[in-house]
Amino acid sequence: MLKLAIFDDEPMILQGMGILVQRSGLPLQVACTALNGLRALEMLKEHRPEIILSDVRMPGVDGLTLIEQAAAILPDSVYLIMSGYRDFDFVKRALALRVVDYLEKPVTLETLIPALQRAMELLGEQHSRVPQPPAGESANPEAPADRADIRKLISHIHQHYSEDISLGDLADIAGMNPAYLSNLFKETVGMSYVKYLTGVRLEQAKVLLARGERTSAVAKTVGYADDKYFRQVFKKHEGITPSEYRQKAQHRP
In which band, very low, low, confident or very high, does the pLDDT at 135 lie, cut at 50, 70 and 90? Predict the structure, then answer.
């Protein structure tokens, strides 16, 4: 699991962002949070997260100054910023600092997942440049190159979840034996490939259902040719039918 740091001066936003990260299904662990820039720097030194998501405006040290200072501590980490203000001077500074993405508040699951994916892809590209083990030696499941392969496959799943993706397809993309990939995926992500794909599909299904789309249309959109099977899978994981979920979502205040 990759370590993620989240910094914002509003406790409710910190809590909400943590929930969104959990719901994203991505192999990320919220390693630390902080309500101000000075505390954030302490947390970065202690936990050394690979991905840092910070608000732009915070007391003590603002988000971009924080990133400037953090880059000296964690040069290989990647950074995301979020703000409730459309401050283009901050955006220009962020681009100069090679910030991966700029998220406008309120951040939603639909905007957060692509940003986190881009951060993970960048980490994967950096790690893939690490020298590979000599020919004939077994790859360590915890080796950076192997983890980078998994992150690339996760990105592929999020982009193609509506298609018929098999473990064999992913193994071909990664150039791995399917059995080895199956074990590596579970060790890296903490769940099987099938369970992960199902989670991605169901999260997207919930977004579409909340918009009022019909169950049969949602099923096809997220990769289920048989809408009856989709209903079974949805109820098994969510405890209610897709229709019941849609009705509840549309009646939320």
Answer: very low
Full-model pTM: 0.53
3-state class of 135 per DSSP? coil
Q: Of 104, 123, 142, which residue constitutes the final position of a domain?
A: 123
Note the pLDDT tens digit of each residue in 187-214.
887 788 888 899 889 989 998 999 899 9
- Residue 73 domain boundaries: 2-123
Residue 229 neighbours by CB under 8 Å, 6+ apart: none
User: From CA 84, how far away is CA 238, in angstroms rounded?
Assistant: 32
User: Are 88 and 76 in contact, with CB atoms under 8 Å apart?
Assistant: no
The contacts of residue 70 (CB under 8 Å, 6+ apart) are: 41, 44, 52, 77, 79
Question: Which of 131, 161, 135, 55 minimizes the C-alpha distance to 99?
Answer: 55
**183 Cβ contact list (under 8 Å, min separation 6):** 141
φ, ψ for residue 206, nearest 5 deg = -65, -35
- Radius of gyration for the chain, computed over Cα atoms and rounded to the nearest angstrom: 20
Q: Could you tell me which of 157, 175, 80 has the C-alpha nearest to residue 166?
A: 157
d(CA 44, CA 38): 10
Sign of CA pseudo-dihedral 114, 42, 15, 240: positive
Whether residues 178 and 208 share a domain: the answer is no
Long-range CB contact pairs, 16-20, < 8 A, 24+: 17/53, 17/107, 17/112, 20/107, 20/108, 20/109, 20/112
